[in-house]
Structure formats: C-alpha cells, structure tokens
Amino acid sequence: MPELSKRLAAVAITQTYAKLWLTGLDPDAQSKKIVTAEPHERHHPGRVGLATIADQGHDPEYPSAVFYEEIAQAIAKAPQILLLGHGKGKANTMAKFVQYLEGKHPQLASKVVGSVNINLQAMTDPEILAKSREWFVQYIETGI
Q1: What backbone phi and psi angles, to 5 degrees, belong to 7?
Q2: CA dist., res. 32 & res. 140, Å (int)
Q3: C-alpha–C-alpha distance, residues 116 and 127, integer Å
C-alpha cells in the first residue's frame, strides 16, 4: 500500500487554512499548510464605510480566490487528489474549492478522485492521514 498511496495527494481544507500531503499518506508524511488572509486583510483599498461589511469593501466570499489559487498551484503535479473538509451549503469550503477548480483549472479538477466530509477541527494530522488511507484502500478495492 505505501507505493500506491504515493499516487494520492490529500488536501484538508477549511475556511481559514488548507493542509496538503503531497508526498504520500504514510503515517510520518509531512503536510504543507496554506493559510488564508485574515478578514481585516481582505478588503478593497480605497473603500471605507461603517454601515455594513459590504459598505466597507470586504469580500463576502471567504476564503478568496487567491487562497484557492495557491492551493491549486501546490497540487498541480499530483496524479490524484483526495479532498477532505466539512460544512454544508455555503459553509462547505471543499465544495467551493471544487467549483473553483472546475472553472479555473478543469484539468486539475479531473484529478479529484474523491471527497470526504469529516470534522477537521477535531482531528489531528495522523487521524486525517489515517482517514485518507482508509478511503484510498476502499477506492483501490472497489473503484468507488
């Protein structure tokens, strides 16, 4: 299994950060962390207001396309990609990232072979890697 899991990059994504395992899913694999800009850093210069966030020029879509693009560039060479995330509806950053890939990087979107909805905030890196390995074993055995 170790040589097979090197074919898969795992991306755990939330609204504020993404952790990427690009060199395999072995228990001692190291992740790369990409952090979004803080909300106070994500406003349009030159627009100041006090009434609402929209009046202040803040981007209502969090995280921004810059965050997604940084992740896309980091996983560009991955042969297969597994996404891990949590949230529902508008709060599902994983789904928003897939939509971004489909629109901006369709060739990269085609490398996404699966997604797992888990509570990332409550999990350690070894637990995320273990969940990724479980998913990958099932994918190899069943093709689903």
Answers
A1: -80, -10
A2: 25
A3: 13
Half-sphere exposure of 50 (CA within 13 A, CB side): 0
Token readout for 41 is 């850093």
CA distances from residue 46 to 49, 51, 58, 75, 126 in whole angstroms, order as listed: 10, 16, 11, 34, 44
Q: Which two tokens stand for residue 109?
A: 């979107």
Task: Name the token pair of 108.
Answer: 């990269």
CATH of 2-142, one of 3.30.420.60, 1.20.58.1370, 3.40.50.620, 2.60.40.1180: 3.30.420.60
Helix H or strand E segment including 16: none
Distant-in-sequence, close-in-space partners of 13: CB < 8 Å, separation ≥ 6: 71, 83, 84, 85, 93, 94, 97
pTM over 0.90: no
Query: What are the Cα distances from residue 62, in Å, to 38, 40, 121, 124?
Result: 10, 12, 17, 24
10-residue mean pLDDT series, the chain (144 residues): 68 94 89 80 47 44 80 95 88 91 97 94 94 90 73
Paired tokens of 11: 């991306």
- d(CA 135, CA 115) in angstroms, rounded, equals 9
